Amino acid sequence: MTSRAHKKCSAVNRYKRFFLTLFALALLALALPAGSLAAATNDNFAEATVIGTLPFTDAVDNTTATTESGEPQFCYFSPKTVWYSFTAGANAPVKADMAGSSFGDTILRVYQQTGSGFGGLVIIGCGSYADSFSFNARAGTTYYIQAGSIYSDGGDLQVNLNEIPPPANDDFVNATLITALPFSETTDTSAASTETGEPAPSCASTSTATIWYAFTPETSGSVSAYIIANRFSAVVAVYTGNPPTGLTEIGCRSYSGLLTFHADSGTTYYVQVGGAYSGQGGPVYFQLDVAPPPVARFFSYPNDPSIFDTVQFYDASYDPGNVGLQSYFWSFGDGATATGCCPTHRYTADRDYTVEITVTTFDGRTASNSQIVHVKTHDVAITRFFVPNSAVSGQTRDITVGVSSKLYPENVQVQLFKSVPGFGGYQLVGTLTQFVPVRQGNRTTDFSFSYTFTSDDASIGKVTFMAVAAIVAARDALPADNEAIAPPTNVMR
Asked: What's the count of helices (H) and strands (E) in the chain, helices before strands?
């Protein structure tokens, strides 16, 4: 095929691909579902859709929506927004959400109107990424809802506004019965109330928007209550006794963490969940479950003990149930025991010992943990040190350091120093490292150094040598005999 024919064929193929692509796009357009939403007419704040009665639902297409100059942007920036206005006819908790929208990056903001225009809007809160937002609407007050997408082009946008009904377990007599553990649920307490004579939790300044649970265990044991509320400060309290005025609080916790208590079989426990401060409410997660066991942990010092060391043990246990640890029991693996958080112990023989700690909480939960403590006594000593009695400047003489090890073969490093005038007093001459086996009797392993005496030594008239031995990769149990100073060597010119 000629080059010109080849180019002509390629051009034809390009045109074919172009028209096939147009044809595919046309078919795709025909395949789209009918009834697409019309462009939003409430794009601008001044054309906000008025919400008359609740419940309310509206759906629009925000793909061509815009943002106005000076339009507020809280929580996340949203380039394609629409507006709604709602004037409450009565005091009531209201939930706004964007459930039913075709995109997930939803952003919904609720404002209270205090004046005209954008400057008269006060942000109340936001709900983003399919999350809702609840607020207490006041009669006669106008609220504006700004809805849109965060980063995508949007699509079918849906806004829902509903009055929140009181929870089923708002009143004490309607307490939710917990028949089995674990139990958990999320309840919106925005419309919950506080009954006359209802007890106020001791760990909160007041008690508002409360809900109730009742639990009668079949067997005795420790139980933990847990709450999570992202939008307000929640409190949980547990009571026993005769409701509603004869209740006695047995525990209380606010904000976070577990409230753990011992529950006796056949006794009914009443759990109160609410806001820690006046006017607070919203979605709150409540969980009741068997209390977790304490976590038993410890460490010791030194971590390489010998029979000459007094080992210090430190407790690092804790109680995730937040009741606290009442007692500690230690078993040191050699028959000895102790109590308290931080005992000491000295071992009499080299071997591995299994040390165990058992902790008990104030409500009777226990846990144990064990570790191996390796007791090994490393000990070397300088038992011979030969230096010449005298020497002449320029003369090279041998110096021998004898090291013994009575317990284990060791790798030993010996450093040889000589005396010098001035601060410090000694100067390093040489270093030798070698294996020192266990030898019987007074036999040693010799470290042999050679030293050439200098004119400076002769001017001083003498040199004193010092040897220091150290076990490589181990701690010497008795380091006092690892250093030796020889008698002075007289040095002449």
From this structure: 2, 35
